[in-house]
Amino acid sequence: MFVIARNSSFTYKGKAIDVRQVGRELGVRYVLEGSVRRSGNRLRFTGQLIDASTGAHIWADRFEGDSIDIFDLQDRITERVVAIIEPNLQRAEIERLKQKPASNLDAYDLLLRAQQLEYEFTEQSLADAVRCLEQALALDPTYSAAMALAAHCHGERIHNGWARDGPDETSKGARLAARALERGRDDSNVLWMVAHATLRLGMDRERAKELAYGSLGLNPNSAIAMTIAGLTEVMSGNPGKTLELSQRAQRLSPRDPRAWFIQAVRSLAYLTNGEFEEAASTAKKS
Taking the model in full, what pTM does it have? Predict the structure, then answer.
């Protein structure tokens, strides 16, 4: 996605303007707006993410803190908002895609459809996701995000015993992961998907950990990258680090569409730590 520079967006500051007009004038699909109120040393921030084409609210929340350390407060609010926006925008884009005729899909639309199918997480939905990604790559053979998601889906199919030809899917997934890295090494999402695929397809834990932390280096507020890093830690015998990372992921994105996965990784960490009641309780949440 591209983001309009603040010098342009700040021209609307303090003005009562319809958000749909903002969207048209700036050429954007979504608008994040907010305000701040003060009472003594206490500050209250409100933020909302709006679909600029319809005016519909996608997400809204408020944050409070003390103005004594304003920079720490600013950093904390920023990381929360950034972490929350990513999955909410993706869900909004998936909903938008549902209104589009199947005959009119481009590579990005096919990637979104595959993402929706991956969220459903069934044997059939992952097979359908792979087919969508194959179509996306037929339209754009250089699309690193589609390669990475396809490798990720192959890894999930292998891990869950859903692959009809395990060696063939492993080989396909490994090739796609390698190609995705060649073209998308600077993309946080590509790195966490390839990290997970590497873990599931090749069980190369150290390489998977390196890629997961590389993803976090590019986007420190990604709940899913944090969770994948946590998974590599517990599989390397460091459940305490996993619990730390997954707790932060949950705090940053409490209504994440992959919340079940965050809980599953936490459950594995508790199990490895010998905390069996916590492991069972967290697995039930997942």
Answer: 0.79
